[in-house]
Design a protein that fits this description.
The protein is an alpha/beta fold. It has helices at residues 9-16, 23-35, 44-58, 60-69, 79-91, 99-110, 121-126, and strands at 5-7, 40-43, 74-75, 115-118, 130-133. It has a domain at 5-75 and 110-133: 3-Layer(aba) Sandwich (Rossmann fold), CATH 3.40.50.
Length: 136
């Protein structure tokens, strides 16, 4: 799993919304990930966050289609990873990271995964993660 890529909700939205400012970069990054045949996944937290984001931005039909299509495997965060996420938030009280962000960081840490496809600057702030999508 160390070769895997976590997809964040910001990348999912950018990929599906042609009007999103990051759409072109999302398409290019998704093609690059596919060409490298890297296994991809979302966490159960990202799945819920992405569904809510798609519902709000693109409507219930597209949000439901994305949710039920089962395009990306869903990795469930373990209780130990959830606890580690809370510790990350406590340790970085100066950041405005969400619990979903911190769960992603904890899953990446625990499973020795170094890549995330995202347009969320919080991933870069956390460090230790190669961020695919965001310009350098």
């Amino acid at each position: 799993m160390t070769n895997s890529v976590l997809w964040d909700s910001s990348a999912i939205l950018a990929l599906l919304d042609a009007d999103d400012a990051d759409h072109g970069r999302a398409v290019a990054a998704a093609r690059q990930i596919a060409s490298e045949a890297r296994p991809c996944f979302v966490t159960n937290y990202v799945e819920a966050e992405a569904h809510a984001l798609l519902l709000r931005k693109l409507g219930r039909t597209l949000a439901r289609q994305w949710l039920t299509a089962g395009g990306l495997p869903v990795v469930r965060a373990l209780p130990s990873e959830e606890q580690h996420a809370k510790e990350i938030l406590a340790r970085h009280a100066d950041k405005d990271w969400t619990l979903c962000d911190a769960i992603s960081f904890a899953v990446l840490d625990a499973r020795h995964i170094a890549r995330a496809f995202t347009f969320d600057r919080h991933f870069r702030q956390y460090g230790r993660i190669q961020v695919l999508g965001l310009p350098r």
